[in-house]
Amino acid sequence: RLVVASMQGQSLSSLNAAMVMNAFARLGHSDEPLTRAVSEKVLRIPAARWRGAGGARDLSTVANALSKQPAVPGMVFRHLATVAQSLASQDVHFGGQAIGNILNAFARVDSNDKELFECMEG
User: Fold this and answer.
1) Most distant pair of Cα atoms in the chain: their distance
2) What is the spatial distance between Cα 6 and Cα 28, in angstroms, rounded to a whole number?
3) Long-range contacts: 78-83, Cβ < 8 Å, 24+?
4) Residue 100, Cα to own-chain centre: how many angstroms?
5) What angle do CA 22, 120, 19 make, to 5 degrees?
6) Which of 3, 15, 57, 111 is the one with CA 20 to 30 A from 121?
7) Which pLDDT tens digit goes with each residue over 54-110?
8) φ and ψ at 8, to 5 degrees?
9) Residue 29 clears pLDDT 90, i.e. is over it
10) What's the structural domain count of the chain?
């Protein structure tokens, strides 16, 4: 409840909430209100606001965290794929860890997004 309340009060970013959600997932805990809050916040961030290598790293963290949660709406991963493609079209450098996290996240949710995979290939 504390994390969701912090997100609603804008004191916690979606990236930080995703990091907390990732920690919960490692403990084997799923939190539906947190997943819903992060999903809604991520959908409100336009692709143009994710910038540079930091944006790629943030994207990988968010995708990785959400992929470990049940019942994340498909539109969230479609949006994240759009973000990744937007970053790639700007010649943003994706580090190896970011690429691995993004591809693993999409594999974990059985998303076969051909365009995403092609843009990750370079």
Assistant:
1) 41
2) 22
3) 78/113, 79/42, 79/43, 79/47, 80/42, 80/105, 81/106, 81/111, 81/113, 81/115, 81/116, 82/47, 83/47, 83/50, 83/55, 83/59
4) 13
5) 15
6) 15
7) 889 989 999 998 999 888 999 999 999 999 999 999 999 999 999 999 999 999 998
8) -65, -30
9) no
10) 1
Residues 63 and 25 sit within 8 Å (Cβ to Cβ): no
Q: For residue 17, what are the CA distances in angstroms to 25, 44, 90, 119?
A: 12, 15, 27, 27
pTM recorded for the entire structure: 0.84
For 25-89, the DSSP string reads: HHTT---HHHHHHHHHHHHTS-GGGS-HHHHHHHHHHHHHHHHTSTT--HHHHHHHHHHHHHHHH
The whole-angstrom separation of Cα 59 and Cα 57 is 5
Rg (CA), the chain: 14
Read off the amino acid at residue 76.
V
Range of the domain at 86: 2-121
